Amino acid sequence: MPTPPPFASDPILLGGENRSGTTLLSVVLDAHPDLVVGPELDFPNPPNLGEHILAAADLLTRRDPRVLGPGTDTADPYWYDGAHFVKQCERFGVGIDDLTTLVTAARDALGTELSSFEDRCRLIDDIGEFRRRAVGARRWGIKLQRKIQRVDDYARLWPRAHFVHIVRDGRDLAASHLKTVPTWGYRSATEAARGWLEVVARPHTVAPQGRYLEIRYEDLVAAPKETLEQVMQFLGLRWDDALLRHSEFEHSLLHRSWGHPAAEAVARPLYTGRAGRYRTDLTAEQVADFERLAGPELRRLGYVS
User: Fold this and answer.
1) Which H or E run contains 140?
2) Which UniProt keywords apply (predicted)?
């Protein structure tokens, strides 16, 4: 199969482990007048993604109980992937009718059911460009979340993209998973360390030079102006004070959140949150377990000396 041509757009693709501040960063950047930045758009399954999205969109339009549930969950697991994608697009401000048009056009243009990674990225590009034009922004962005691990693959398809990877002290992340989201998060400090390393250890070694930036969550909330000035310089965008006042603006995620777990928190002004929470929320044994596995990366990122 021939290699597909790269996309001409210049998105801002945000990455990071779950509970690391990716949603906060996306909403802050969305406040900039030149940007429209949305949440994650997941597309790993099923093989016939295009057809599945269209069918799920139709069921959602008819409020079929099979595709409804808490948040982006569905009563019938079969419909989860398609309905989840539709709901995520609504978080980005792309309604069902517009998404149906975009998916249909992509299927027709490619002659596929959007089964390959490249075809699915093409759909994401179409969605991002649609949203950018709709609001008159210069650039669009979404969250890659943990898929920042594949930054080199995304960089190949988007040669003009910039990647911003927000990292958080892995010990705090472990505490957040174990205490805040026990139903779907990591179940032990050791498991959290392995998962955190999967996300933070590789990207900086394979990302294209000049197109990848790491920032720390702790710096974003403690020194937002300095940290965001660094991000703006990296992106080649002018500074705008709206970045420090994101809670005063409308964001599609907050308008149609579909139960996003971080929506309520990111609607508030920037605050230091619970940096260092591992000191009270983890036992000494749990901290030692995490540091035993992740010590070198904690040192590289400045979390331990």
Assistant:
1) strand 139-145
2) Transferase
For residue 90 the two structure tokens come to: 């609504």
Spatial distance between the Cα atoms of 24 and 168, rounded to a whole number of angstroms? 13
Q: Return the H-helix or E-strand segment holding 37.
A: strand 35-40
Amino acid at site 20: S
C-alpha 5/C-alpha 205 separation (Å) is: 25
Q: How far is CA 101 from CA 57, 107, 120, 130, 296, in A?
A: 11, 10, 15, 11, 48
Whole-angstrom distance, CA of residue 218 vs CA of residue 169:
8
φ, ψ for residue 37, nearest 5 deg: -125, 130
d(CA 145, CA 20): 9
Q: Determine which of 19-23, 28-32, 61-65, 246-250 has the lowest per-residue pLDDT on average.
A: 246-250
SS3 call for 261: coil
Lowest mean pLDDT among 16-25, 59-68, 244-253: 244-253
Top pLDDT among 263 and 37 is at: 37
The domains located in the chain, with CATH, are 12-234+243-300 (3.40.50)
Of the pLDDT bands very low, low, confident and very high (cuts 50, 70, 90), residue 260 is: confident
Residues 6+ apart with CB under 8 A from 38: 26, 30, 91, 92, 93, 131, 140, 141, 142, 143, 252, 253
B/e letters for 245-263, b = 16+ CB within 10 Å, e = fewer, are: ebeeeebbbbebbbebebb
User: Is residue 167 a contact partner of residue 301, using CB atoms and an 8 Å limit?
Assistant: yes
Write phi, then psi, for 153 (nearest 5 degrees): -70, -45
Span 216-255, pLDDT tens digits = 999 999 999 999 999 999 999 999 999 999 988 888 877 7
